[in-house]
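Worked problem 6 (solution included).
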Amino acid sequence: MKALVLAEKPSVAREIARVLSCNVKGKGYLEGPRHVVTWALGHLVTLAEPEDYDKKYKEWRLEDLPMVPDQMKLKVIRQTSHQYQVVNNLMRRQDIGELVIATDAGREGELVARWIMKLGSWKKPFKRLWISSQTDAAIKEGFARLKPGAEYNNLYDAAVCRAEADWLIGLNVTRALTCKFNAQLTAGRVQTPTLAIIVQREEEIRKFVPVDYWTIRADFGDYFGDWRGKEGNRIFDYARVEELTGKLKGHPGRIYDLRRENKSEPPPLAYDLTELQRDANRRLGFSAQKTLSVLQGLYERHKLVSYPRTDSRYITSDMVPTLPARLKGIAAGPYAEAAKQLLQKPLAVTKRFVDDSRVSDHHAIIPTEQPFKPADLDAGEKSLHDLIVRRFLAVLYPPFHYEQLTLVTVVNGESFYSRGKVVKNQGWRAVARSLADREEGKEEALPDQTLTSLNKGEDRQVKGIKPIKAKTRPPARYTEATLLTAMESPGKFIEDEDLRETMKGSGLGTPATRADIIEKLLYNNYIERGGKELAPTSKGFQLINLVAPELKSPELTAQWEQSLTNIARGKGSRAKFISDIKNNTMALVRSVAADTAVYKADNVSKVKCPVCGKYMLLVKGKRGRMLVCQDRTCGHRQPENENKQGFASSRKASQANQRLIAQYSDQGSIGSSLGDLLKEALAKEGRDK
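Solution. The predicted structure is:
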C-alpha cells in the first residue's frame, strides 16, 4: 500500500516528491514506489455561500438577517475544482492506505487539508508531517518521524472556529451595513477593531493643540548639560525661563555628582514573524505583506530560513547541536568573519535564545543549514535575508559592555545633567545594525556625548546659557511597524484592568494574518498610505461611527483570539466558542438595524450611471479602478478609463435591455420568467465585470 502525501502548493509538493523519489508524473500528482504526492492550490474547499443554504440569500435584504446555519456546510472552490477532483480521485484509489498531511505546519495549513479530507469522506488512517524548514534533511527527518494525525485535532478545531466566526460575523455585519446604508461597506472580527485603532489615533492628532515649551542648556566648554527641575526638563511658562536664565548668568558651575557605572546590554531576541515585519518596515520600507511574501520565497524556494509564520522568538534545546551547521551555511560574503569567530569556540547559548517552554508550534525564524549563495537572491530577498542572518549572529554574540558616566553640574542651585558612554566591548552590536528610529518619549532622554577626564567637586566655567524653544508634538500616525505592535499587544486599548492582564499574549489576529488585515483595509479604502504613515479615509471614519461599539473594540476580538489559542491547546470548547459567536452575530445585526446614522460616500465621481442615471462611485478593483453605481440595486460597474463611445454604447445597450425586460414581463408567466432570467444575467454580467 502507498501513502498519499498532500502538500499545500505545487512547488512544495515537487520538493517533497524529489526527496521521496516520486518521479512518475501524473495529472496533478507525482508518484513513486511508496508514495503519491499531490497538492492543493491554497484552499480547495471553503465554507458554503449563504445562497447554498437558502436561495433567498441571493438577494441582500436586511430582513433576512442574521444568517446563522445550524451546521456549516463545505463546498469545492469552483476555480480550483479540477485539482480537488484529482485529490479526491487519489483518495479513492484502492492502493492508497494512508494519507500524510504535508500542508503548512500551522492552523491554516491544517484547515486546508482537513476540509479536503472531510469533503472527500476520508476514513483511512492519516499522519502529520510537521517540519520547520524545507531542506532535504528536514523533509527526510520529518518523514522518519511522522506524527499521528489525531495529535492535531485541537489545532483543526481552532482553525474551524476561526473560519466559521469570520463567516458569521463578517458576512452578516457586512450585509447588514450594506443594506442599511445602501453602500459597499464591510466589517470583520479583526479588520474593524484594527481600523478603530487607526481612527482613534487620527482623532487624537486632530484634537491635539501644540503648546510652546522651552528647555535650557548650559555650555561648560568641553561638555554641555541640560537643566532639570522637579517638574522635569520642559518649561511651559516663558516667565519662568527668564527667571532661571537671570538666576544662572554670571555664575560658575561645580560638578556636584559624577557616577561611573559598568553596564551591559544583552543581545536582542531572535525574530518571530511580527518582529521581522516591524523591522523590515522600519529599515527597508517593506509592507507587512511584502515581508511575508519575500520571506515565504526564502523559506520555500531558497530553503535559507525556517518556517515564517511563527510567534516564537526562541529555539528548543534539541536544536542547539544544529547551530554550528547553520553558522557554516551562512559563512559567506559579509557574514564569513562573524560566523568564523563564533565557530572557533563552543557556543555560549542561554535561555535568552534556548527555551523549550517558549516554543509551541514553531521556533524563531533563523537560517537553515542550506549554503548561502548571494547570487541566487534578488535585491529584496538579500535585504530581508540580511536582517535575519545579522539577528541570528547577534543572538549568539556576547552582550554589549560599556561604562556610563552621569554628571550633575550645579549652577547657583540649579542642576544640569550630562551623560556619556565609553564602549568596553561591542559584543553583538559589532554584527547587528543599529536602529536610529525616533520613539515616542525619546526626546526626554539625555543625549550621549564624549566626556573627558572630570572629577567630582571640580569648578567649571559657564560659557553660555541657552533657552531652546520647541512645541509639543501630537502622537505619531501609525506606520505598519507600529500598527503591528498595537495589533500584537492591544492591552492599552482595553479599559478593564483585569481583562487587560488576561489579554497579555493575545492580540488582534495572528502573526500569519495581520499583514492580510492591513492590506484589506487599504484595498477597501478604509485607510491610505502616505509614505510610511497610515491614515484613515472618510469612509474609514464613517464606518467606525456606524458599527456597534463591541465590534470596534479590541477587547472582544482579543477575547476571541485568546479562546482560539485555548482551543488549539486543548483548553477551550469549540461548541461554546461558536455559540458565543452566534449570539454576538445576532446582537450586532440588531444594532445595525436600529442605527439612525447616515452614510455619505466621499468617492462620488462626475460620471453618471448609464443604467439608472445616478452618479457613480470610484472604487479600487482587482483589475484597477472601477466606476460602480452608488445604487446597490442597480449594480452597474465599468472600468474607470472606459471612453465616451463605450459609455454611449453601454447606455444604448442598457436601455434596450430594459425594454426587453419590460416586453417579456408583459407576456404572462413564461415571459415574466424570461424577464427574470435576463435581469439575473445582466446583474451577473455587472458583477463579473
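Discussion: Residues 465 and 531 are 39 Å apart (CA to CA).
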